[in-house]
Design a protein that fits this description.
This protein starts with a helix and ends with a helix. The chain has 7 helices and 3 strands. It has a single domain, classed as Arc Repressor Mutant, subunit A (Orthogonal Bundle). It has a 3-stranded antiparallel β-sheet with strand order 1-3-2. The longest helix has 19 residues. It comes from Streptomyces atratus.
């Protein structure tokens, strides 16, 4: 089966993230995992080099950031461009799909950050009741 036939046959399939076989589950995991969501959001406004991203996404290890970027690139959300310079320079930027996903993540992050006083109050009430 060639690539176009495979693509045509999967285009007609309904994707259901609740189904264990659905490929959207893996992408959802890449996007909503701690490092994936932070990496996508960090790239939302502009592209960045690896070390710039590592500084921006505080706490991510070099290995985890590398794995995250590879997964997001494979899913078509991040574009990686290696420059033929010495030392080598690699730039990362969002694809159009990556921009759309990162924009929605950014809205969610802003909602959570804006409602943190309520979350902290709820945590305190919960902890006091235990």
């Amino acid at each position: 089966m060639d690539e176009s036939t495979r693509r045509d046959s999967t285009d007609s399939l309904p994707f259901d993230v609740f189904s264990r076989q659905c490929p959207s589950r893996g992408t959802l995991e890449h996007v909503t995992g701690r490092w994936g969501s932070l990496t996508l959001t960090a790239l939302h406004d502009s592209g960045a080099r690896f070390n710039e991203l590592r500084r921006r996404v505080d706490g991510v290890s070099e290995k985890m950031l590398s794995q995250t970027l590879h997964a997001l690139e494979r899913d078509g959300l991040v574009h990686r461009e290696a420059q033929p310079t010495n030392p080598p320079r690699v730039d990362y930027e969002l694809t159009p799909l990556g921009h759309e996903v990162a924009g929605r993540l950014r809205e969610l992050i802003q909602l959570v950050e804006g409602r943190m006083p309520e979350v902290l109050d709820a945590r305190n009430r919960y902890d006091e009741a235990r």
